[in-house]
């Protein structure tokens, strides 16, 4: 069966299609994909993984067509970051010009 392994950094995305046997787990798909050697900064002891946007365990069994995602650590707490102000609007031309 076919699954996709996805790992996204701010500047680069790695998307790897992988063939795995029926009953394969997330860990087996990650191992077969070679993502851990391509991206040595991945630490599965610290980083979470998910299937289609839902956190999953490494021993979760995959279904055909699954998208396995490796999540990066959040570096900023979104609750404490001030929202950026909207961009300034350009000044409207004066009415009745000269």
Structure description:
The chain has 98 residues and is of the alpha+beta class. It has one domain (2-70): Ubiquitin-like (UB roll) (Roll), CATH 3.10.20. Helices cover 12% and strands 24% of the residues. The protein is built from two helices and five strands. It has helices at 26-33, 35-38, and strands at residues 2-8, 13-19, 49-51, 54-56, 67-70. It has a five-stranded mixed beta sheet, covered by helices on one side. Strand 1 and strand 2 form a beta hairpin.
Question: Can you tag this structure with a few keywords?
Answer:
2 helices; elongated; alpha+beta; 12% helix; Ubiquitin-like (UB roll); five-stranded mixed β-sheet; 98 residues; 5 strands
Anisotropy-based shape: elongated
CATH superfamily: Beta-grasp domain
What is the share of helical residues?
10-25%
C-alpha-based Rg, rounded: 21 Å
Structural class: alpha+beta
Order of strands across the main sheet: 2-1-5-3-4
Whole-number mean pLDDT: 86
Reading off the top of the CATH hierarchy, the class is best stated as Alpha Beta
Biggest beta-sheet profile: 5 strands, mixed
Beta strand % = 15-25%
H/E series, N to C? EEHHEEE
Distance between the termini: 72 Å
The domain count comes to 1
Q: What is the CATH-assigned architecture?
A: Roll
| Uncertain regions spanning at least 5 consecutive residues | none
**Annotation, overall tally of beta strands:** 5
Question: What oligomeric state do the depicted chains represent?
Answer: single chain
> Can you tell me the CATH topology?
Ubiquitin-like (UB roll)
List the total number of helices. Answer: 2
């Amino acid at each position: 069966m076919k699954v996709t392994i996805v790992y996204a950094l701010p500047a680069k995305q790695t998307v790897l299609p992988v063939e795995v046997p029926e009953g394969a787990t997330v860990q087996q798909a990650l191992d077969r994909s070679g993502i851990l050697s391509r991206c040595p900064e991945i630490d599965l002891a610290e980083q979470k993984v998910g299937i289609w946007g839902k956190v999953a365990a490494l021993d979760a069994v995959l279904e055909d067509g699954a998208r396995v995602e490796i999540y990066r650590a959040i570096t900023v707490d979104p609750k404490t970051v001030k929202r950026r102000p909207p961009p300034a609007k350009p000044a409207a031309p004066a009415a009745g010009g000269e």
